[in-house]
Amino acid sequence: MSLYTDGFVVPVPRRKVAAYLKIARQAAKIWREYGALDYKECVGDDLAAPFSLSFPKGIRLKAGETVVFAWITYKSKAHRDRANAKIMHDPRLAAMCDPKNMPFDAKRMLYGGFKVMVSG
């Protein structure tokens, strides 16, 4: 099996973490329903990285924000593509993604698809 992962990093105002969590829990159910093998969303806890570029610096974190780091794992890139095509048409997702009421700055979200090299 050649696993494939979508990863993203999102700046979230601390005052909106609870609202983000509500959406994340709903999204996890939708992605798993369409076949995602794993779905993780993690909120920043120890973001100081004196030895490298930290997430806060890399995403240009503003005062009062924190970072959410997340990934979704699939069987393959083709599996991801099939699942996402269905997910993007799911009315539950559209209901959660009102651009005027998002609990994060989508314009600063980092996203990419990755071939898994090591899984231990």
Comma- or semicolon-separated keywords:
120 residues, alpha+beta, four-stranded antiparallel sheet, 4 helices, 4 strands, globular
Describe this protein's structure.
32% of the residues lie in helices and 27% in strands. By secondary structure, the protein is of the alpha+beta class. The longest helix is centred in the N-terminal third of the chain and has 17 residues, at 17-33.
In short:
Helices cover 32% and strands 27% of the residues.
Topology:
Layout: E1 4-13, H1 17-33, E2 38-43, H2 55-58, E3 65-74, H3 77-87, H4 91-96, E4 110-115
Antiparallel strand pairs: 1-3, 1-4, 2-3
| Mean pLDDT over all positions | 93
For the record, give the distance between the C-alpha atoms at the N and C termini, rounded to a whole number. Answer: 14 Å
Q: Structural class of the secondary elements?
A: alpha+beta
Q: What is the overall silhouette?
A: globular
Largest sheet: 4 strands, antiparallel
Using only C-alpha atoms, the radius of gyration works out to: 15 Å
Write down the secondary-structure element order: EHEHEHHE
* Residue runs with pLDDT of under 50 for 5 or more positions: none
Instruction: State the share of residues found in helices, binned by percent.
Output: 25-40%
Strand content: 25-35%
